[in-house]
Write a structure and sequence with these properties.
25% strand; 262 residues; alpha+beta; globular; five-stranded antiparallel sheet; 42% helix
Length: 262
């Protein structure tokens, strides 16, 4: 390959053939071959990326381009999930880039205690996401509306009061459901991370996201987790619950200890 090139790191696991198999089966960012780089009993999944595009200035430009950012995130996710399907891994942050492969073993050596502890802590677990939405509009659509006479000021005020009441009821019910989710799955989880509720284009489906949490769940209890939350939200209350995953443990890659930055 013509250079110069930097080394993009997707995930870190323990030494062995599982990550070698992933590297042989997939390609990385921009179709570049994957490879493994080992050091201190750990292994990193790596591919080469152009230094001009993934240096400090170039990377800032890439991250500002929504189409490139989406393609980068999709590839990063596919590689991490393929690794997670075979073995325990620590997902690295999006666009974790080192100057070259020689810097990767140095990073692994420096962070061996933290990475080793995290890999042991995460072994046999996956991440499940739970989002709770308040959907007063959906609740109204399911209701049978009254038919006030046209042009009536009292009818207008009554409709406005009803709208505010439905909104308040939906948000109140969503808060109750969010608390019930945490209580219900607590016996099934090792840890939980509360993320900022998603807004705008990041949301999926109707309603406003009022709770966005990630749970670390033993793989053997994923089905039980889903069953425990089935039917938790009453559809007539204007509340929607969305469960995603299982995923690689992105939200827990910095717990219980925190390493340095690249």
């Amino acid at each position: 390959m013509n250079g110069p090139w930097h080394s993009y790191v997707y995930a870190v696991g323990r030494g062995g053939g599982d990550l070698d198999a992933v590297a042989a089966a997939l390609t990385g960012v921009r179709g570049a071959p994957l490879r493994t780089v080992a050091g201190s009993g750990l292994t990193a999944l790596v591919s080469s990326v152009p230094a001009d595009d993934f240096g400090t200035d170039g990377l800032t430009e890439r991250m500002a381009d929504l189409a490139e950012l989406e393609a980068l995130a999709r590839t990063h996710h596919e590689v991490v999930e393929a690794a997670h399907a075979r073995t325990t891994v620590l997902p690295m942050r999006l666009a974790t880039v080192y100057l070259d492969d020689a810097r990767v073993p140095a990073m692994l050596s420096e962070r061996t205690p933290d990475f080793g502890e995290l890999l042991s802590w995460l072994h046999g677990h996956a991440e499940l996401g739970v989002k709770v939405y308040a959907d007063p509009v959906g609740a109204h659509a399911r209701a049978v509306p009254a038919a006030p006479s046209a042009g009536s000021g009292r009818a207008y005020l009554r409709r406005r009061r009803d709208q505010h009441r439905r909104r308040d009821d939906a948000y109140r019910a969503a808060g109750v459901v969010a608390g019930a989710v945490r209580d219900t799955v607590a016996p099934l989880t090792r840890d939980v991370v509360a993320h900022r509720p998603q807004q705008g284009e990041l949301t999926s489906g109707p309603g406003e996201n009022v709770a966005n949490e990630a749970y670390l769940v033993p793989r053997t209890r994923v089905r039980e987790f889903h069953q425990a939350l089935a039917g938790l939200a009453g559809s007539d209350a204007g509340v929607r619950v969305e469960i995603t995953g299982p995923w690689a443990p992105y939200s827990f890659a910095g717990r219980p200890t925190h390493g340095g930055t690249a």
